[in-house]
Structure formats: C-alpha cells, structure tokens
Amino acid sequence: MIVSLTIVRYRTTLIPLALFAMAVHRISISRQKGCTFWKLLGSGKSGTFDLKPDWQQWGLLAVWDDQSSFDVFYRQSFIANWWRRFTTEQWTILLSPMQSRGQWDGKEPFGKPNESINSEPVAVLTRATIRLKKLKAFWAHVDGVPHMMAAAPGYITSFGIGEAPFYRQSTFSIWRNLDDVKGFAYRSKEHAEVIKKTRDDDWYSEELFARFKIIDAFGTLHGADPLKGLLKFVTDENNS
C-alpha cells in the first residue's frame, strides 16, 4: 500500500473549472484500478483547520495497492491529464503508513499499522468530523493553532484540507522528526489544552490520526518544492 496526496493550484479565472472538477473527478477516480480509497479535497488558507477557503488550491488523497497503480494513474488518467492542462502547479507526496488509528467515513483507509518511525522527515494527517452542535465551540478554540504550529520546533510545512466547509476538516503536516511531532502535540501547553477540550467536550463524531514515512515528493507550490533538499535520504535509501 502507498498513499498519495496531490495538491494543485488553478488561476483565479479558472476557479469555476476547479469547482466543476470536484464533481467530475469523483467519477473518474471511483473507477481507477488499484485505488482502494480516495477523497477530493478543498484547501484552507492557513495550513490547518480554517474557515477561509483557498479557492485556487485543491487536493486529492488516494490509497493505492502499490506504486505501479499510482504510476498508471499519474501517467494516463483523466484526472492527471486535467491537472496538466488546467492547473498552474502540482505537488505530489507519496507515503507509506506507519501508524494509524481511527476511521474516515467508517473505514480504516490505511489499515492498522503500528510500526516504529525511524526515517526523517515525518508526515502526519489529522482528520475529524465536527459535531454540528459543537461547531461554534470548535472554531472558537482553534484560531491560534496555525500560529502555534508554524512556530513549533521542527515544523516544515502543512496544508489545511477538507471534504466540506466548516465541519469535515483535516490537517496534513510535515516535521523534521518524530520527536518534533510529539513536542508540538503533547508538550505544547496551548495545543495540549485544545486536544484536552476535544476529548472533554466531545467535539468530534469521527476522527483519524496517522503518521507516515515519506517515499517521494515532486512538483511545486507557489514556485517551490516544499521539501526541497530534505528528501535526499529517500533516494539514497531506495537505491541501497
């Protein structure tokens, strides 16, 4: 199994086409051989849970039987050809699930891995469906999270992605190592307080937390590769 996350950007004039893609791409990806799970995603502006959408930026997260299944999709699929024709930028990261707990739409898309993470950097996905009656409390307490995350030691980059505005939200983040992930999640007082409130006040009807080893990354966003110079170990490891 491998997991892909592709983030693409459209010109402002093509935002209506990006919205249209959210409808037509689900037909194509649902028929893609070797794809066992997928989600078409919108993006927030802040890099994490966000009420302000970035109408130019969109994503696709997918789970594949193997890398060859992804390669066929990326070379030949209707969606990949659409991206090449209509988007200004694409960035893709390929991942191997190392730890995962929780569900996404009642499924465990990454299985139940529980392996040690020795590689660097580390990717993390946090995803939740927020209870409608808890929306006001949730958004009142997470405003400061983007600033806390961006200032945390070891933080590299992050994307706020979601299936629906306001209540189905995800954050995909990349950190220099596992200790930095744990430092932000558990040793940051402010973030720890937010996590405690999610449990005490039962904000979520469903949630998922996963950590990944990074296999590869390619493409650009805003004119640069977010992981430039950080993945040499991947090439060396794969060639050894």
Number of domains: 1
- Average pLDDT figure: 88
Query: What overall form do the CA principal axes indicate?
Result: globular
CATH architecture: 2-Layer Sandwich
* Poorly predicted residue ranges: 233-240
Distance between the termini: 21 Å
How many helices? The count is 8
Largest β sheet strand count, sense and barrel closure? 8 strands, antiparallel, barrel
What is the rounded Rg?
17 Å
Number of E-state strands: 8
Structural class label: alpha+beta
Strand order of the largest sheet: 1-3-2-6-7-5-8-4
**Overall CATH class:** Alpha Beta
Helix content: 25-40%
CATH topology: Alpha-Beta Plaits
Helix and strand succession? EHEEHHEEHHEEHHEH
Which percent range describes the beta-strand content?
35-45%
